[in-house]
Specification:
Radius of gyration: 16 Å
Strand order of the largest sheet: 1-2-3-4-5-7-6
Number of strands: 7
Number of helices: 6
Distance between the termini: 16 Å
Helix content: 25-40%
Structural class: alpha+beta
CATH architecture: 3-Layer(aba) Sandwich
CATH superfamily: Gcn5-related N-acetyltransferase (GNAT)
Order of helices and strands: HEHEEEHEHEHEH
Largest sheet: 7 strands, mixed
Number of domains: 1
Shape: globular
Strand content: 25-35%
CATH topology: Aminopeptidase
Length: 191
């Protein structure tokens, strides 16, 4: 047990599915990310993605609360054999306390409970966000080139790439890197 885990024992951490009425809180949590990296604030418009996906059955919005105050969230999309982490944020006031680890573990567990046959998890990171890339690498995510060969794979990674291609989003924008982790690695970390 580390110092952060000991400190967090004093707080009640809970998770719940997010609702549309939670969007303002979620947007507030994301805002410093876009501001700090000088990125377009497309996330502010609740009529755009990811907010419009809330009613899609293969997309999951989950909030993390600390003593009933929302401190983070993730949004993930399930495609055959793969769960893609679209959004992952911890409120800037609560970073550095191990909450990101708890949230990523929750993401993995939730996906594998619902889809035990998955074989990969994917996510994308803006190339200028070195902090996020380093965070995900600590959990076994590896950067992979977005090559045409991925579309031919018969696994979760190929399924995700083909899903993006059908939406005219393949390859990802040139400023985005693709990362993945195999489920075998995830299962070891969550057990």
């Amino acid at each position: 047990m580390n110092l952060y885990d000991d400190h967090l024992k004093k707080f009640k951490i809970s998770f719940r599915q997010a609702l549309a009425e939670d969007f303002d809180t979620m947007i507030e949590i994301t805002d410093d990310y876009y501001h700090k990296l000088n990125l377009d604030k497309v996330h502010l418009n609740k009529n755009n993605s990811p907010w419009i996906w809330i009613s899609e059955s293969n997309v999951y919005f989950e909030l993390m609360s600390l003593n009933d105050q929302v401190v983070g969230f993730f949004i993930s999309r399930q495609v055959p054999l793969n769960n893609h982490l679209h959004s992952f944020f911890i409120d800037k006031r609560y970073r550095g306390f191990g909450l990101g680890k708890k949230l990523i573990l929750r993401h993995w567990r939730k996906a594998l409970e619902q889809f035990p046959d998955n074989d990969t998890f994917t996510l994308h990171v803006n190339k200028i966000n070195k902090f996020a890339a380093d965070f995900y690498k600590k959990f076994g995510y590896k950067k992979i080139k977005q090559e045409k060969e991925l579309l031919l794979l018969n696994d979760g990674l190929g399924s995700w790439a083909r899903n993006c291609e059908t939406k005219d989003q393949w390859p990802l924008k040139k400023d985005m890197d693709l990362y993945f982790v195999k489920v075998d690695k995830v299962r070891k970390d969550i057990s």
